[in-house]
Write a structure and sequence with these properties.
The protein is of the alpha/beta class. Helix content is 36%, strand content 13%. The strands form 4 sheets. It has a 7-stranded mixed sheet, sandwiched between helices. A 4-stranded antiparallel sheet has the order 11-12-15-14, covered by helices on one side.
Length: 464
């Protein structure tokens, strides 16, 4: 009895299509493309396969996905700014609820009190982690956060030069260059000491001595995995009337003095280690913290405590006079959105860990990393590239080309680390290895044995 019932839906019935064409004054759909020269137009149907059923399509995509190499199919020692940490199931369960599953923040200052509470909690938690009182609701990632804090310093100091450590991660430097080039900001490079891997004091003094730098920008751990002496660097910047800008791994707050406590004026971080999965490179979350007197220069949203019309305490987006939708060309903040969903994940992750849990995770990272690095350094010809202190990753020098070794490891199902040549062309015989709480002793023993075989084979090949 349903034979005559049409259950489909025509997006554009012929009558509607004809009416639209008539309204815009053309006879056919083909006429809409008349401006495109026929010589560059495809004059045949694409050779596409026919449609698939739902189950067949799902199987096709599962088969394609199975070809991917991930941290679940391979044992991974990759780092360089993104790390494979354990994320409690509760983080996914709560963050994936429909009430939260949106990353966008409306412009209305009286937006959802629930989401505002989450963002306010994020600011408070990241304030503790970074060691400064004023924190924004987030920017896109750690590299963006570094670029934003550089521009903050230029506006605060009314100068257009910044001193930047050469040892910051390459992708951070690329974003920094892009941000500052169009704003006429000059960058003065500060070299690292080749032995320690930390900033060279003489190079630092030379870069700052002119007195025209708005800020010194450093990263700790740096691209070599080495921890900088933040107290000394911040003091040096202040002696030359420059702000001290520091990018950190937020996990370090579990076992070390925060960058804010070390004297930094602006601190930024990539919050990926705090409950955000790797997910093919993003989305991630950048946070920026600063002193109270510089709150008005922060990029992005800020949630503050206010009173509603009934005199009851409430939360709202505050200091919006900084933003471009209010101040246009006079704005000091040009971030139109934020990573609210990922900020929620950070709040959940830190809340589940607590202070003791954060300390435990950070301790495991440091302990396991040092154990693995020490084990690899017992292999003939393997040593640390720098003597400076490190947290959960370190650059190792091999007695052969790193690419060959890493390729051999991958063939054994191991991502052995990052080719040092990607960090600096002169480091082609080095590997940056990272270790987290996810690595067991069995994992590290397996990787050590694989490294020994790969190095031996590479040396034999090079000698042939």
């Amino acid at each position: 009895m349903h034979d005559n019932v049409h259950m489909g839906y025509d997006l554009q019935p012929d009558a509607d299509r004809a009416a639209m064409l008539d309204a815009i004054g053309v006879a056919t759909v083909e006429d809409l493309f008349s401006a495109i020269p026929k010589a560059i137009r495809l004059d045949r149907e694409l050779a596409l396969p026919g449609p698939l059923s739902e189950w067949a399509l799902e199987r096709e995509f599962r088969q394609r996905a199975a070809r991917n190499a991930t941290t679940r199919t391979h044992l991974s020692f990759l780092g360089g700014g993104a790390y494979d940490h354990y994320i409690p199931a509760a983080v996914d369960a709560i963050a994936n609820r429909g009430e939260f599953l949106t990353a966008y923040t409306p412009y209305q200052p009286e937006m959802s009190q629930g989401l505002l509470q989450v963002l306010h909690d994020f600011q408070k938690l990241m304030s503790k982690v970074l060691g400064l009182p004023a924190v924004n609701c987030s920017v896109y990632d750690g590299a963006t956060a570094m670029a934003e804090m550089a521009w903050m310093a230029c506006v605060i100091r009314n100068k257009r030069t910044v001193a930047v450590a050469r040892s910051i991660l390459p992708d951070y430097r690329a974003v920094l260059d892009t941000y500052l080039a169009g704003r006429g900001v000059a960058i003065v490079d500060v070299a690292s000491d080749p032995s320690s891997g930390t900033i060279d004091p003489n190079a630092l003094e030379l870069a700052l001595s002119a007195g025209d730098c708005a800020a010194l920008i450093v990263q700790s751990p740096n691209r070599f995995g080495v921890l900088e002496s933040l107290g000394e660097l911040c003091a040096a910047a202040h002696r030359h009337d420059a702000l001290a800008n520091v990018s950190v791994n937020p996990l370090l707050a579990g076992i070390a003095r925060t960058a804010g406590a070390a004297g930094a004026d602006i601190v930024c971080a990539e919050a990926q280690p705090l409950g955000i999965p790797l997910n093919a490179g993003g989305p991630y979350l950048g946070a920026v913290a600063t002193r109270s007197e510089y709150r008005g220069f922060l990029p992005g949203r800020i949630v503050g405590e206010v009173m509603d019309l009934k005199g009851e305490p409430a939360l709202a987006l505050v200091h919006e006079e900084r933003e471009q939708h209010v101040s246009r060309d006079r704005a000091t903040s040009h971030i139109c959105s934020n990573q609210a969903l990922l900020a929620l994940r950070v709040v959940l992750h830190l809340s589940l860990l607590g202070e003791q849990g954060l300390r435990r995770v950070a301790t495991l990272n440091a302990t396991k990393a040092h154990a693995f690095v020490d084990a690899l350094c017992t292999l003939p010809g393997v040593s640390r590239a720098h003597i400076g202190p490190y947290f959960n990753e370190s650059l190792l020098r091999l007695p052969c080309n790193a690419v060959a070794v890493l390729k051999a490891l991958e063939n054994e199902g191991i991502f052995g680390g990052i080719d040092g040549g990607r960090l600096d062309p002169s480091l082609g015989d080095c590997v940056l290895v990272a270790v987290t709480e996810m690595h067991s002793k069995q994992d590290m023993d397996r990787a050590k044995s694989a490294y020994a075989r790969a190095i031996a084979n590479a040396l034999e090949t090079e000698a042939a």
